[in-house]
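Figure 3 (text version): structure tokens given as input.
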């Protein structure tokens, strides 16, 4: 699994989220979720519970949300489905998060990621 930090903005709030090739979508930790709520970021609750299986196949319960105004690089994304897991220690972005883009090029050696709208 490859893990790097990506600078992400939610409205006026910025954070670093770990890009994890073994993760799925956007998963928010308790720390980041509280930080975003306190800064005024609004989430639409889809009233869907989710279960993720982490290390040692331990189930983690969460909820599914929609977020708008997510900024990554020069792009602002809306209608981003994310999951909030109160027991996660760190927020993660998985590979299918990049399905919002027409193409993605990653250069591991030079440590950069190019996103194509």
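Below: residues designed for each position.
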């Amino acid at each position: 699994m490859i893990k790097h930090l990506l600078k992400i903005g939610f409205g006026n709030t910025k954070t670093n989220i770990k890009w994890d090739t073994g993760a799925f979508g956007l998963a928010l930790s308790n720390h980041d979720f509280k930080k975003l709520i306190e800064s005024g970021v609004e989430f639409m609750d889809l009233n869907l519970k989710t279960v993720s299986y982490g290390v040692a196949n331990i189930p983690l319960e969460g909820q599914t949300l929609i977020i708008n105004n997510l900024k990554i690089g020069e792009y602002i994304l809306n209608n981003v489905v994310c999951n909030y897991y109160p027991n996660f220690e760190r927020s993660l972005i998985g590979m299918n998060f990049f399905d919002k883009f027409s193409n993605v090029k990653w250069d591991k050696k030079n440590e950069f990621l190019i996103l194509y709208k």
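The domain at 3-116 is CATH 2.40.70.10 (Cathepsin D, subunit A; domain 1).
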